[in-house]
Amino acid sequence: MSFTTDHKQKFEDLAFQIKNQDRLRLQANGGNSIIFSYPPEEESLYLEKAADIFGDEVVFIDVAKLLVDFIDKEGWDEFKTYYESLSTTPHIVFKSSDPEMDLFDMIIEGISTALADSKIPILIRTGVLLGTGIENVNIMEHAVVMHSAHPLVIFYPSTIKDDTLLFLNFKPASKYRCVLVK
User: Fold this and answer.
1) Does position 7 have pLDDT exceeding 90, yes or no?
2) Taking the C-alpha atoms of 107, 111, 114 and 117 in order, what is their torsion angle to the nearest 10 degrees?
3) Which of 10, 37, 118, 137 is 20 to 30 A off residue 82, Cα-Cα?
4) What is the pTM of this model?
5) How far is CA 31 from CA 2, 73, 142, 156, 180, in A?
6) 8-29 confidence digits (pLDDT tens)
7) pLDDT tens across 31-86, in order?
8) What is the distance between the alpha carbons of residues 168 and 25, in angstroms, rounded to a whole number?
């Protein structure tokens, strides 16, 4: 379906899930997240419509911007050297257990800030997570998300084929701990 014929029902379903958090937790195996699936090529249309519909109720957390900020923190040359030194385990660059701020920590910090302001956090431009080792389930199972007063919404460029959610139309993705709006 095209954006024009598809978006109205999807956004109504999303609004329903956001407003019915108790039901969401039951359907999401105790989780507190909503994956909002849309065709990757229509991302800008869905983001624009979401801004129109939800306005000040939400905070958009742009994961692509966070990635650029993460790289800029140390500078490109430092980042490149660090990334290349971990070439067999590059995911450690973006999500590690050490106390240094990494991309995963920056995402959780953005979610925490939105929740502290009593806003619904919406992750956008999540396609940049491909190859970082950060999976949607890592974010959805974080204590900040699981125990928050508002659900986390993840705008998810994907398709659904034979009941399988395909991130960026090719990588199978987890629907555990969330409700899928498709």
Assistant:
1) no
2) -130
3) 137
4) 0.92
5) 30, 32, 10, 17, 12
6) 889 999 999 999 888 888 888 8
7) 999 999 988 899 999 999 999 999 999 999 999 999 999 999 999 999 999 999 99
8) 26
How far apart CA 37 and CA 7 sit, in angstroms, is: 11
- CA 48 → CA 7, 60, 82, 179, distances in Å? 11, 11, 36, 22
Token pair for 133? 């080792």
